[in-house]
Amino acid sequence: MKQVTLNGRKTIREDMLLTLQVFCSLIGWLALYLVFSLSQRGPEWNCRLVTLTHGVFIVLLTAYVVFIDGPWPFTHAGTENTVLQTQALAICLGYFFFDMGWCLCYGSEGPVMLAHHAASISGILLALTMGKSGCETCAAIFGSELTNPLLQSRWFLRKLGRYDSLLGDAVDVLFIVLFATVRVGVGSVLFYHEMVSPRPALVTKVGGVVMYVLAWLFMWDIGKFALKKSRGKYKRWADSQRTDEGKMDGCCSHKGQKRLLGKIVES
Q1: Across residues 204-229, what is the average pLDDT?
Q2: CA terminus-to-terminus distance, the chain
Q3: CA dist list (Å): 109 to 46, 175, 207, 217, 263
């Protein structure tokens, strides 16, 4: 096929190949969902299994892209995409198309999560169509998806009746710590380098602002959840302490009555 340059950046063959990669990714995630549906656990259970699988896989893939394959996103923001970056973005984009469709079909998510999905799709599309900013986009995906397996694990623990346990508390603490340190903390550093670098396009920087604001909205909700759970834990602990003290007082009082009754009998 003859290669025709589009806007001086890409060829028709490259565009077709990229579209095919995204389409195959979408079909792959949909097929995995259908496989999970054989368990007859329910649509949300199956979708969350797909989300968990994607989270683990994409975190491992983007970790390799960012930390091993390179280039470093803090110093090379706005540079041309590598082949591996393009493949990782195509796989992730296919998943987000699947998940966005599922959320709209079942109406399971609120406006903030839908806005996050829409912003993620737009950002990945921009990086793929422009052929640039793949390194910082992969880094943003790594930070965003790092806590996702913990979020899904929390949901599964709740459904299985094992959330109110030490394991459930460990998952919550690890989720909060990782979200605050990686997605907000390290994400703030990445956001700064994205804004001051002259290479990324203006539309890419605007997308970075949107994702950064959404991250802080999530952080606000997580902070309220952490405060509420901490208060509930403390209240239950205080109630148990008062209960134990009451039992101890009752036991001592009962022993005192027995001693007094013994003295009366002896006299």
Answers
A1: 90
A2: 115
A3: 16, 20, 21, 15, 71
